[in-house]
Structures are given as structure tokens and as C-alpha cells.
Write a structure and sequence with these properties.
CATH class of the largest domain: Mainly Alpha
Order of helices and strands: HHHHHHHHHHHHEEHH
Number of strands: 2
Oligomer: single chain
CATH architecture of the largest domain: Orthogonal Bundle
Helix content: 40-55%
Number of helices: 14
């Protein structure tokens, strides 16, 4: 299985003989993020909203551990909702060990509900990195560095427990839920018993990170529901069907490249994290810039799911497959599996718009990159001239997949831009 093979391959590559020299802070950061991308891929509880929350807290932990020892970085305390000042440092510390200890503690907290194989991999990585980092240090310095890193993580973990979503039961599906009864209301699209109710209807109540509330980036309503062939709603449905009936090989590849289904990928939030990791490796970014990018991205994407879910359950719109089978073609089959929650807006679009906003702010306009996230899954790398090109393609992939109407895609990107602006405004590097 990939779970067994890849997680232990990652642990060996990161901690084997080639890594005999003590890892740099940059290597520590990359090691742990590569690990959590595999953990997210193989842990059933990591639906996209839950994964986004974990990545956000991990990013804040990495940033604060780094910023505490860098006078050119400003803490996010007082900027993110309810985040109080971090513990102060006492004397000189080893930056790599501080970061490792913080990430080890945070990964255990935010990704610790993985299975036995993941648990063993986390412990192996922690043990081997502790050995490689601590062997070259004075014991007192090593002990103080490790203690401080864990103190930073513990502070963030304690903060996270007040967001209202630290416990997720039943994989996020409510035990009781009353479906809407309007013609446009969302109805289940899967025969799986668990999915006869929508995923995470209460996620919009989670405490946001940078935006003031889950309703901070509202959207206009989708086109008015109608079964009239002359209506705008019918036209949007016909577009989904027409596109599905005439998909090119390139469009199919795009749909699958950005699908990022739970348990088959690092999730949609993890895909954008993987892009940043690839840029870090390609450009040799230092820890300050890397943690800035990862923290802003984590915050923006986590807030985007809160905002998106707020809007989804406000309008409670049915999926294309439901409408098309009801009104146009009872044999319609989307290319991708339809997710179990309301349609408007597109979550892929909202999170991608937020990601493109903050990454453009961090790296600049016209920043070209290659995305190799799914090469090991048999999907070739794709090249993009900038982050918005990738975001627009990720959003449009949901039309190709047959699971979103055009309005959900366009408005999702707009909502993501609004959400991302709050993370963009954070003061980080002086």
C-alpha cells in the first residue's frame, strides 16, 4: 500500500545516512511538511475543511517558532483572532531544534489521529531528527531549545482548542439533520449511508483566523432556480452537460489533476501547500520567507472554507447531477464524484482564489512555477505563468468534472480574493 511504502520512504530519505549532518531549519520545515502531506492523504478524517484547519495551525506554529528568534519578523499574536503573545525566549537557542520541537509537537496534535503506520512514521522522524540535531549541541542548549519549541507549539495548540472545531465526530457528518424541501434544495448525491446528510454544516461557526467573521465575504445569490429552458439556471446546467459530453483529453486531465479527493491526495489545501514546498526547494528560500508563505497560505485557505461553508448553507443549492437528471438527462454522469454538500459556491474556487491572493502577495506578480504534486500518482506536472493561472484552472476543473455550475466557480474565486485579502494584510516580515 502507498501508506506503508511512502511514509516510510519519506522517513528514510529525510533521516538516513545522506542526512548525517544536522538538518538546517529549512530542511526541518520541509521534512515535517512532506510528512504531513502524506498523513493527510491517508487519514479518513481529513476532509478539506478539517485539513485546512490543521494546515493553518501548523503554519502559525512554524512561523512563530521562527519569528521568535528573528528580529525581522513580527509575531501574529494580536493579529489573528484570540492569539495571545507567545512565550518569550530566554537566551540563545538553536533555531533548527526550536523549529523541529515545535513542529513535532504540533504535528502530533493536529495530525495525530492518523493510523498506526502514520503514528510510527511520526515517532521515527521525531526520534531521528532529535538525534541528528541534538548530537552536535551542548546538552543544556539542546534541552532549552527543545523546551522552547514545544512551548510555542503548546501555546498554539491551546489557542486552537477555543475555535469550536477541535473535535470532529462521525467524520464530520451530523447525526441529525433536516434536509431542505425547496425545489432548489441540496439532496444527497451518493448512496453511502453516511452521506445522506451534508458534510460539516456547522463548519461556518468555526472561529476565523484573519477575517472578522465567517460572513465577512458574502456573495450574491446564485441564478434563480428555474426549470424553464429559457432561464439562466437552465442555461448553466446545459453548459455543465454540454462540457461533460464534449470533454477533451486535456480537460479530463485538468479535472483529475485538481480533484484532490480525500484519501487519494493530500486534499485541496494540501495541494497548495505542496506547491509552496516545491517553490521552497526550487528557489532555496530561507525559513523566514518560507514560514511566512506557509502561514499566510494556511490562514487564507482555512478562512476560505469557513466563508465558503457559510455561503453554501445559506443558499443550500442542489448539485448539477441532481438538476440535470431531474430536468434534462436522467442518464447524466459527471466525470468526478460529486462531494456531499451544497453546490454554491465552489470550495475549490474559494480556496484557490484565497491561495492565489496571498501567494501573489508573497512572491509577486508573474511568478511562474511548475506543479508536480501528482507526478507520483501518474499525472504529469503542469506549468503556470502565475498563481492566478493555477487558481483559475483549479476552479474551472470543477466545471470539467461536472460537479459545479459556472456561477459557483466565478463567485467562489471572488470570495477567495476577499478572504485572501485579510491574510495578505497580516504584518509579518519587517
Amino acid at each position: 500500500m502507498r501508506l506503508v511504502a511512502l511514509i516510510f520512504i519519506v522517513a528514510r530519505l529525510l533521516c538516513g545516512p545522506a542526512a548525517a549532518a544536522a538538518p538546517t531549519p529549512e530542511k526541518v520545515l520541509a521534512n515535517w511538511y512532506r510528512m504531513v502531506l502524506e498523513l493527510a492523504r491517508h487519514t479518513p478524517t481529513y476532509s478539506p475543511p478539517v485539513a485546512s484547519r490543521s494546515f493553518a495551525y501548523l503554519g502559525v506554529t512554524a512561523y512563530e517558532a521562527t519569528a521568535s528568534g528573528n528580529p525581522d519578523m513580527q509575531s501574529l499574536a494580536g493579529q489573528l483572532t484570540d492569539l495571545s503573545p507567545l512565550p518569550p525566549r530566554d537566551g540563545t537557542l538553536d533555531e533548527a531544534l526550536v523549529l523541529h520541537a515545535a513542529l513535532s509537537e504540533a504535528v502530533t496534535a493536529f495530525f495525530g489521529n492518523t493510523g498506526p503506520t502514520g503514528q510510527r512514521a511520526m515517532k521515527a522522524l521525531d526520534r531521528q531528527m532529535n538525534e541528528s540535531l541534538g548530537d552536535a549541541l551542548d546538552p543544556d542548549l539542546a534541552a532549552r531549545s527543545e523546551a522552547y519549541g514545544r512551548a510555542v507549539a503548546d501555546h498554539v495548540i491551546a489557542w486552537s482548542k477555543g475555535d469550536g472545531k477541535s473535535v470532529v465526530e462521525n467524520l464530520g457528518f451530523p447525526y441529525e439533520y433536516t434536509l431542505g424541501t425547496e425545489p432548489w434544495s441540496w439532496v444527497p448525491t451518493s448512496a453511502i449511508p453516511l452521506q445522506q446528510v451534508p458534510l460539516m454544516p456547522g463548519w461556518r461557526e468555526m472561529r476565523p483566523f484573519a477575517m472578522p467573521s465567517g460572513a465577512a465575504c458574502p456573495l450574491p445569490p446564485p441564478p434563480e432556480y428555474s426549470e424553464d429552458p429559457a432561464s439562466a439556471f437552465y442555461a448553466e446546467a446545459m453548459e455543465v452537460k454540454t462540457v461533460r459530453d464534449n470533454l477533451t483529453d486535456e480537460q479530463k486531465q485538468i479535472a483529475r489533476f485538481w480533484s484532490d479527493d480525500p484519501m487519494l491526495s493530500p486534499t485541496p489545501p494540501g495541494h497548495w501547500m505542496a506547491i509552496v514546498l516545491q517553490i521552497m526547494a526550487r528557489d532555496g528560500l530561507d525559513t523566514a520567507r518560507s514560514t511566512d508563505a506557509l502561514a499566510r497560505l494556511g490562514v487564507a485557505v482555512a478562512d476560505s472554507f469557513i466563508a465558503c461553508w457559510d455561503t453554501k448553507f445559506q443558499y443550500d443549492l442542489l448539485r448539477p447531477v441532481t438538476y440535470i437528471r431531474r430536468v434534462i438527462d436522467p442518464k447524466f454522469e459527471p466525470l468526478l464524484i460529486t462531494p456531499p454538500f451544497p453546490e454554491y459556491p465552489s470550495g475549490h474556487s474559494t480556496q484557490s482564489g484565497a491561495a492565489a491572493t496571498v501567494l501573489t502577495a508573497v512572491f509577486g506578480e508573474g511568478f511562474a512555477f511548475t506543479d508536480s504534486t501528482h507526478v507520483d500518482d501518474g499525472l504529469p506536472a503542469r506549468n503556470y505563468p502565475d498563481f492566478w493561472a493555477a487558481a483559475n484552472e483549479a476552479a474551472l476543473s470543477r466545471l470539467y468534472g461536472g460537479i459545479h455550475f459556472r456561477a459557483a466557480i466565478a463567485q467562489g474565486l471572488a470570495q477567495g480574493r476577499c478572504v485572501g485579502a485579510y491574510a495578505e494584510a497580516l504584518r509579518t516580515l519587517r
